[in-house]
Amino acid sequence: MRSIMSMLVGAALLVLVGGCWSSVPKHTNLSGVWDYDYVPAKSGKTKTGCMTLSQSQYNLTGQANDAEGQFVITGTINQTQLTLNGNDQAKSRSFTIKAEISSESEFEGTYQTNQGATGTISGVRQE
Fold first, then answer.
1. What residues contact 113, with CB distance under 8 A and at least 6 apart?
2. Fewest CB within a 10 Å sphere: which of 19, 52, 62, 80?
3. Nearest alpha carbon to residue 82 among 48, 59, 115, 51
């Protein structure tokens, strides 16, 4: 009886610990100031911007500023996947970024705007 109980407790601990490990994102702290380059598919010309992000668990909030406007940012992290949504209500502009986080200081991906523009984007955290 005692060995069965020990096995059950051990199995329960394995499930709990394994579940905790698998639900923690690989990169856990994206808070900070980020410089980013984005390249619209149509023009192919690199543009730059800057954003400040704050992270709480898997959620991000912040602000971005670039040639297209000033945006309020919301987003999420899922393992190494980053999703950011930007909204500039004054200009009725918005975008969505889907990116891969390569480290706590770099990401790279694509974006799409509510006007139909698409392109690539990469970001680097300021030191």
1. 68, 93, 94, 95
2. 19
3. 59
Radius of gyration of the chain (CA): 20
Residue 71's domain comprises 32-125
Q: What is the pLDDT of residue 14?
A: 46
In a domain, 120, yes or no: yes
47 pLDDT band, cuts 50/70/90, is: very high
Backbone angles phi, psi at 9, to 5 degrees: -65, -45
The DSSP line for 19-30 is HHHHHS-SS---
Residue with tokens 């602000």: 63
Amino acid 93 reads R
Residue 93 CB: number of other CB atoms within 10 A? Answer: 17
Q: What is the pLDDT of residues 109-123, one digit of tens each?
A: 999 999 999 999 999
How many domains does the structure of the chain reveal?
1
Residues in the chain: 127
Q: What angle do CA 89, 61, 113 make, to 5 degrees?
A: 45
Whether residue 21 is contained in a domain is answered as no
- pLDDT of 19-38, one tens digit each? 444 444 455 689 999 999 99
